[in-house]
## 1
Amino acid sequence: MEKQMLKIAILAMAVVGSISTIGCKKDKEESKNLTVSNISYTDCLSENKDALSKALGDPDSIAYSYQNNTLYITHYNLVVGCGEEVHVDVQSIGDTIRIAEWTDGYVDCVCSVDNSFQINDVKDGLCILEFVNQGIVLQINL
């Protein structure tokens, strides 16, 4: 009876291990940094040294196009530090492209800018764009 219970316990552990492995498949997908180029942004569209209210007056939005394995993105009304250089970092994890946009250092004011850039070597198909600093998630078909 003990041997049978031991066999059942081992079998149960194997099944649970298999299910756990299948469930974690996305977590183990390879991540890679994609190449970002041609970053350009406007001067401040609005500026408010006292509060974010004016900079946040217009909601940000995303426009994109895709051609020859290159994804072209414009982020309208991105809130950043006034007069600071805008940086973009992109990472691909499975079918998700994670995009981080930021400025460096301490700022004494914020403003909205339109930020444009391109991501190279993007494969076509269904993917998710996640703008990590802004909480924007879009599902797109390239």
## 2
Amino acid sequence: MSKKDKKEEEKENELIKNLKNDEKLRENPDFRMEMISMATLFLDDLANNIYKTSIEMNAIVPYYTIDAWKEFLNYPIVRKYIKSFRDEKINIVADQGLAEGDRGAVTIKKAIQEGGPQINNSNLILIRLPEKKDWEE
């Protein structure tokens, strides 16, 4: 393998790597190429496509049918990849809410931690102190 090939492989997106290495997809090369092609199109505008449905993706890229987009978006590898970015966004929003004293953010953080793969045995305590008053007046 040449240096150029190694660099190209390193630059390759995690989603595409996982699709290429998926055993189920290796059994059906045509379907595998379709999934990789759809992933490439999906990743071209990931920031905007991350929350789109199969219907919306079909409107953007009508070359593939709505059913093909639905199958792509629900494929376990793709679903897990998208979920990781959505969870990242939700986590950031929850952290911002905690910093602002939003009680709902505590519930969101707790749900994320319970559903997440990481184990966190720490407890979260949020204390709101009243404004300082001068009692000598």
## 3
Amino acid sequence: MWWAAPKVHRPELLRSDVDPVQTLIVFAATAIAVIMPFVVVPEILERKGFNPKSGSVRSLVWVSFLLIVFVPAVASGFLFSVRNLADWAYLGVGLLVAILYDYYRLNPEKVPWSRRRI
């Protein structure tokens, strides 16, 4: 029975392999990668007089997001270590869905399957 087992505390069982500093760094980098391009860039451009729903602003948003994600991946060599074609397909489909969702969310009148047919 599990409750009758002797209470032996081994240091290797109590130690965690999760480094809290590294976890905070990863969380901060993820937050910056999302908040910076999708919140800060459109807000700055809107204050400068641009329409945040325009194609040029959205293009700048996505380019800045992809730069924040891919430049460190290329610099560290991680991007070149991915050899599985399925992983690249997942990435491509995920980015395509995210970009189309962003576009159609901001431009609901352009959704092809919800237009009225005359």
## 4
Amino acid sequence: MLAAATTAMRSTCHTLVLVLTLLLTACSGDELVGVHIKLEQDGKGTLTTRALTTPDPGRAEAATKGATFTARASLVASQGQFIRLDDVKLGGANGLRFAAKLGDDQPSVRVYVPRGPEQQWIQALVPDRETRHKMAEVYDPTGKTLEVGNMIRIEIELPGAVVASSVHPAGRGIEADRERKRAFLLLPARSVTEEGEELVWDITWR
């Protein structure tokens, strides 16, 4: 489970462990994992994370006789509340972080997205590529799905209509877009785990 290192986050978190077979589709590029933020007019909000992980044995395994289980995969969704978006940091002080400018005619949020194989915020959401391949075999034993958790989606739901959503520098498969009151950033896990310049994602709304 991914913990947001912020004193503004309430201590109580609601956690749901969801079985992959209920949540995944047969497409490898689905944005299964990521971060969703709902930002209110007063700057408070709700943070939801979805992380791909290897769970402990479940009740189905305990109820099964005559088979030895050797692989598992789950999607863990965790939710909590924050007082100030600027206080929310995933993966340490230099990890995924936010800077909100509220109260102006053109409010905005800037998101800093560091890249690299040692980034804790990435490791907290998705395992390495080899593990993702093995998890795909658990989810889809037919072999049609080659990899799961290969796309990270960061989405921010805002109190007004989004007028701009852009990211720089450009990168392979990296996409910033918007739809009504939502802005989202799509990040291929393979791209963000490579060493590179920190991404800056800018969002404005009205």
